[in-house]
Amino acid sequence: MKLKLVFSLTFLLVISSCTNNPPEEGLTAKNGMVVSAREEASKIGVEILKKGGNAFDAMIATDLALAVSFQSAGNIGGGGFMVYRKATGETGALDYREKAPLTASKDMYLDEQGNVIKGMSLAGAMAIGVPGTIAGIFKVHEKFGSLPIETLFQPAIDLANKGIVVTKKQRSRIKMHQRYFQLVNKEKILFQEEISVGDTLRFTNLANTLSRIMKNGRDEFYKGDTARKLVDFISDNNGIISLKDLELYEAVWRDPVEFQYDNLKIISMSPPSSGGICLEQIMKMIEPYDINDLTHNSLDYIKILVEAERRSFADRSYYLGDPDFVSIPKEKLVEKEYLLERMSGFSFESPTPSHEISYGNVNVELLESDETTHYSIVDQFGNAIAVTTTLNGTYGSQLYCSELGFFLNNEMDDFSSKPGSPNMFGLIGGSANKIEPQKRMLSSMTPTIVEKENRLFMTLGSPGGSRIITSVLQTILNVHEFNMSMNKAVNSPRFHHQWMPDTIKLEPNSFNSKLIEELKSFGYNIGYKNPIGVVDGILVRANGILEGGADKRGEDIAVGF
Ligand code: DON
Questions:
Q1: pLDDT by residue (tens digit) across 353-377?
Q2: 224: which of 148, 220, 321, 401 fits an S-S bond (Cβ 3.0–4.6 Å)?
Q3: 496 C-alpha to center of ligand 1: Å?
Q4: Ligand 1 centroid vs 79 CA: distance in angstroms?
Q5: Which residue has the CA at smallest separation from atom 6 of ligand 1?
């Protein structure tokens, strides 16, 4: 079953169209804005701002609203990262990433011959990492919340009871996954019903779970009735997460990665996400080139970005992991001399084959998937947040706890199950990202805030696994180097390279055939992927007006006031 499942999951793509002619300008607003994957969630976030709540209050309400309205990625059974910049200029980051259970072990996904058991880290209860979302939300509230927790939970509870109207994209996503739901779940789940566009889906059990958490606090999820029900459910499905695992879970405040690029200060997620460090490496590698003299998405522009990306992803795979377990040579990795030396082999005359910058003998076949979600918020006080949250794959492990009303993640796949063996995103890792009890798996999520000359300039991020990093990178460059509006920046065509496999992925129908031929004759392997990231961001113009960039690759939407 597992084997069949992994191959099928491999071919599941969320097909979204990539528009080549996005409107010049996105929604503008004077006071505050929320941009997220769902209209319901953006509206709920803005309602909280209008009630006088701050960006952190809106974060909680939006996150929970996504857990109801966008269940393929929005979650309470997964985890995420938040980067913030307060109006005072104070910055910080919250890590509510999932953790490996206490009884997890390095070789838990290997068979007796030492081969990876296909599908085991992808589907079903063994794929689940200890969820962090509820801990994250309460951590945010404890430190920065200004409205009562009831005010922030109630809109999502009401939405779950009232129900959401199924859109075309949601229906096709549910449809595509129904056979996996059937393979993984012992009993028929709500999402296996015949579902049509325009139907209203109500989530009473999720509403009840959220109500109990609202009433009893964070411990309801980690120590209370909900915890016991969850652990019983997981063990009934042959998983290993215990009550002790839930009890021990803590979200952690981290120092974000911060660096200068031209006159911008980039504030992004630190390990256990690779996002911030990779973004810093890539941006510092390309900084010596006059990017704004190049044509957007031209041959030379693609060459520079691709060569920097491949070098950074090679470092990612060798050096990065959970900072609570491994020592990351951060200073060295982002040092100017090191990066100059790393780019010294770059030439406009020929590509650098990925195996030449390899730390070991690896051969990667890229497995494609799936879905995460990002939202950006700026409030009327000038605070900004960027949050990326996920179940990992679309609907995570496909395991749905009907009694509690939510899907559980398959984040364990983000660990390196075996050195040199790719995960769902084709990413490979070594011992820095090996499985250890209580460890957080390495991520690519890159919630990012940008300052320009000490003022808030942008908040943005994306889903897309490994492609998150390169999507965020290109969006920042679109605005900064090519003077695009936020809306145009998020909706412009993207490309991606991640060292292994040694292939440039292009969004289909977005690059002209002459350019593609030139890339090929230069020596690049070309592949296609649709979409590459779904970026949601907010730009603060010089006059203080907010402009939303909601990616048309999804059903993402900006709401402001
Ligand atoms: O943390 C990570 O990097 C992945 N689990 C994110 C998964 C993801 O973005 C899937 N989406 N497209």
A1: 998 886 754 444 333 455 789 999 9
A2: 220
A3: 15
A4: 11
A5: 465
